[in-house]
Amino acid sequence: MEPDEIEKYMKAGKIASDVRQWSMGLIKEGAPAIDVADKIEARILELGAHIAFPTNVCIGDVAAHYAPKLNDKTEIGGVVSIDLGVHVDGFIADTAYTVDLSGEYKKMLKANEAALSRAISLVKPGVSVCEIGRAVQETITGAGFRPIENLTGHEVKQYELHAGLSIPNVPVPYDRRIKEGMVIAIEPFATDGAGRIVEGKHAEIFSLIAGKPSRIPESRTLINLLQERHGLPFAAHWYAKRINPLKLTLAIQDILSRGALKAHPVLHEKEEGTVSQFEHTVMVTKDGCVVTTR
Ligand code: MN
Ligand code: MN
Predict the structure, then answer these.
(1) 190 alpha carbon to ligand 2 midpoint, in Å?
(2) Is residue 162 among the annotated active site residues?
(3) Residue-wise burial string across 71-86, b where 16 or more C-beta atoms lie within 10 A, e elsewhere
(4) Dihedral of CA 293/160/206/176: which sign?
(5) Is 38 a known active-site residue?
(6) Which residue, 13, 201, 226, 267, shows the most beta carbons closer than 10 Å to its own?
(7) Residues 22-57: pLDDT tens digits?
(8) Is 52 exposed, middle or buried (0-12, 13-18, 19+ CB in 10 A)?
(9) Catalytic site residue from 83, 100, 218, 254
């Protein structure tokens, strides 16, 4: 990797780490989810970076992809996970943590955090992703919970949030190995449910996958506004100030129907189990890794 790329990954990681730490003060019973997400995103921009993906505020059995919508009335409580992303020139830092406001899930969160630490301690060139998945699974099941088997960590590349290699949370029947210079997000999830997620109906998060033209003016406006994201995910409500919200919804439907947009629906635990998540981004070095988001 080029020195300036390393520098940008490290800068994104440092800002993600600072925002992560700072944002913990926002996680209070009854706080509006949309305020939490908006404040985190504003902070990322204030610190001189860009938002890599909409801030996820996942409560209870929601495992991922819940970004508050326009005028969202959801208040936080129970078990709350915050997943935030920062980029500097497309070089991404992806990090998440969970807070237990109920006081009933301390053991699960502790096991989940331990699973992440153990996974990170294993990362070095030549290690099989299966070995990492096994360590995550053992740590979480050892405490009496289940990892989510159909959610994984992932490699990141410039402007690519999910690139190449996946990092499983269970042992997998294939042999793919970590290489020096890879940047990977490791994200174990723990639950007291079945250990699988299913897709919900609603999506607030989307990503543009092709710049297909449209006759609808709002669709054209949205596609133009999205160019600066280089395909990175966005939340629909981000554009509600630039495009009338009703027309924005229609524009999204229009672009979706023409196959130029990918929806990322909310992911729920299959048995409505409570879900936690801890995530860090690491850069693989010659004999280990550097955690960019710590
Ligand atoms: Mn994440
Ligand atoms: Mn991730």
Answers:
(1) 15
(2) yes
(3) ebebebbebbbbbbbb
(4) negative
(5) no
(6) 13
(7) 999 999 999 999 999 999 999 999 999 999 999 999
(8) buried
(9) 83
CB 130 within 8 A of CB 171: yes
The yes-or-no answer on residue 154 being catalytic is yes
Ligand 2 center to residue 4 CA distance, Å?
A: 23
In whole angstroms, give the CA distance from residue 34 to residue 38.
Answer: 6
Residue 81's nearest CA partner among 112, 107, 51, 53 is 112
pLDDT band at 67 (very low <50, low <70, confident <90, very high): very high
> According to the model, what pLDDT value does residue 210 have?
85
Query: If you ran DSSP here, which 8-state letter would residue 258 be given?
Result: T
- Give the active site residue among 65, 87, 154, 237: 154
Enter the DSSP assignment of 222: H
Q: Residue 240 has which token pair?
A: 């509600």
Do residues 40 and 55 make contact, with C-beta atoms less than 8 angstroms apart?
yes
Task: Determine the pLDDT at residue 212.
Answer: 79
Measured CA to CA, the distance from residue 220 to residue 75 in angstroms comes to 34
* pLDDT of residue 213 exceeding 90: no
Q: What is the pLDDT of residues 83-137, one digit of tens each?
A: 999 999 999 999 999 999 999 999 999 999 999 999 999 999 999 999 999 999 9
CA 112 remoteness from chain centre: 16
* Pairwise CA distance, residues 86 & 50, whole Å: 6
